[in-house]
Specification:
Length: 319
Amino acid sequence: MTNYIMRRVLLNVIVLWIVATLVFLGTHALPSDYATRRAAAGFEQVDQTEAIRLAKKELGLDKPLWQQYTIFMGELVTGDLGKSYETRRSTWAELKERLPATLELGTMIAITSFLIAIPVGVISAVRQNTWIDYVLRGFAILAVATPVFFVAILMSLIVLKYDLFKIDIVGAPHMWSDPAAAMKLYIIPVLAGGISGAGGTMRLLRSQMLEVMRQDYIRTARAKGMKDRAVYIKHALKNAMLPVLTVMGLTISGIVGGQVILEAMFDIDGVGRFLLRRLTERDFPPFQGTVFLISMVVVTMNLLVDIAYAWLDPRIKYT
């Protein structure tokens, strides 16, 4: 196991280097940059060319691309995620303010997704080819096919039409300061994100449950007189959850990245909305640093999921 973990860590380092390189090249391939936009906004400047040159020199954008890349990679190695051109604040400081909202929203979405997907997937498999199975399968397909923003818009229209409650998108309440107002703000994006995220997990869990329930050890457990509920939970679900862990791991790792669409729709000042703004403004350092941080969380979560495989299934041995 130790050798396997060391190899995976080395592979993760290579993956993160590739991600950082692609993000750097991708952002610099975009038309325009922050210096050009900043100079264009200064209407008092008569000589725009000189204004752009001075802005690039001030921000370090006049250096050759290879030199900017070397500086960028060196900062990542030391844990520096860059500094915003606009606010002159470090990316860590910017994320510290926005991460709580993202963690609130993302955690509730992940929990809602699992609470929907696991029981629905199990019931659909247990009640195979019954009307319950058909209804739940239809719900899963609809959840996968329907964009999350459409579900959020539909729910918002229902709330507004029947005046069910008021959504405070100005005050930006948090669960620890004003739980009632925060729940009103989060309930629609949480349900929309949870339903959309649960669709794929439901279908995967159902197919895995059906495959496991055809195994010999399931028939043996039933022959010994074990109750169906115990067979489903103790034997079938535990083994069916192994492939589902990968999906759940990606769902959890996606929390840090934020829900860009939902945060923008409900004016939630989280990481996803922060990324969108930085990219729009061509404020590359915080965008690059945040994407790198998200990638690090994803690859780490994948490693933890693989380790969890061996914990759940003793037959799996890593060498």
